[in-house]
Write a structure and sequence with these properties.
alpha/beta; Rossmann fold; 3-stranded parallel beta sheet; 10 helices; binds NADP nicotinamide-adenine-dinucleotide phosphate
């Protein structure tokens, strides 16, 4: 068996086309242009490139992006002061603070400072709580993107056993919560695995849907996968490779080459979950502007 490759690039392109139409309609009907404030502290090259990609994606679909760059030695108070200003700015519908922040800044305090109604990353405890009790909220982007990929590939979740590897606040725990909730794209029986899980393969072999977010290449090998399962690889890892211009290539957390011969569906890295993450950030920003326009 060779798995169907889940094309995250195509899914993202299609959803962005729909969002472009929504943005144009919002502007024409209500005179509202969705605005996303992007905040970057410091010069971390990976963070810089993520921020650039997010701003480019905004421009492509007609979202106004407000670029805020602070030096590495900025204080927590300065950053929180900027967030409070953005909370009050009626042109801004979403605030994204690029993580990680420099060590001297408390990430939790910063997330707490964002108005939950502009928290388009879905990281504020208010949105986490709303998601967990089934209230309308901004869903965290990567988990939401995963649920979208399952849906558009007609991968049934109801009554299935979903196994999630990883329990981070941004991927593992929220994707487990979304798969378990009593709603479309949910209703799965969910097992959440982590480094204290004994005999990981005993769980993964039972999975109809296997979401892997460990941040370690080859966490899942072919012998750990049930034939026909849907394997969603969230991992993004750099592996040294001198045949690539940059000196490295990107791999996921799953042994893609071997697992694709066992699984029913699989996401590639790159080109699987990754493109959906930014798209869901755009989705949440448009959702926020739409809600504001209805007030
Ligand atoms: P993280 O905060 O480092 O969490 C990793 C989780 O995996 C932890 O809960 C850890 O368990 C668990 N884990 C690690 N090795 C394991 C193993 N061998 N067996 C079982 N569990 C294991 O990572 P994250 O932020 O969730 O990200 C995970 C991966 O996804 C990373 O590669 C990251 O770059 C990628 N990512 C991609 C996107 C995207 O858009 N494509 C977005 C976000 C993240 P413990 O809790 O016990 O330590």
């Amino acid at each position: 068996m060779t798995a169907t490759i889940i094309d995250g690039k195509l899914a993202a392109k299609n959803l962005r086309a729909q969002l472009t139409e929504s943005v144009a309609k919002l502007k024409a009907d209500k005179g509202v242009v969705p605005g996303l404030a992007v905040v970057l502290v410091g010069d971390d090259p990976a963070s810089k490139s993520y921020v650039t990609a997010k701003e480019k994606a905004c421009a492509e679909i007609g979202i106004y992006s407000d670029d805020n760059r602070l030096p590495e030695n900025s204080s927590e108070e300065e950053l929180i002061g900027l967030i409070q200003k953005l909370n009050q700015d009626s042109q801004i519908h979403g605030i994204l603070v690029q993580l990680p922040l420099p060590r001297h800044i408390d990430e939790n305090k910063v997330i707490m400072a964002i108005d939950p109604d502009k928290d388009v990353d879905g990281f504020h405890p208010v949105n986490v709580g709303r998601m967990n009790i089934g209230q309308p909220c901004f869903l965290p982007c990567t988990p939401h993107g995963i649920i979208h990929l399952l849906k558009i590939n007609n991968i049934e979740t109801k009554g299935k056993h979903a196994v999630v590897i990883g329990r981070s606040n941004i991927v593992g725990k929220p994707v487990a919560a979304l798969l378990a909730r009593k709603a479309e794209g949910g209703n799965a029986t969910v097992t959440l695995c982590h480094t204290a899980t004994k005999n990981l393969a005993d769980f993964t072999r039972q999975a109809d849907i296997l979401v892997v977010a460990s941040g370690r290449p080859n966490t899942v090998t072919a012998d750990m996968v049930k034939p026909g399962a849907a394997v969603i690889d969230v991992g993004v890892n750099r592996v040294e490779d001198s045949s690539y211009e940059k000196g490295y290539r990107l791999v996921g957390d799953v042994d893609f080459e071997a697992v694709k011969d066992v699984a029913g569906w699989i996401t590639p890295v790159p080109g699987g979950v990754g493109p959906m993450t930014i798209t869901m950030l755009l989705y949440n920003t448009v959702q926020s502007a739409t809600m504001k326009a209805q007030c």
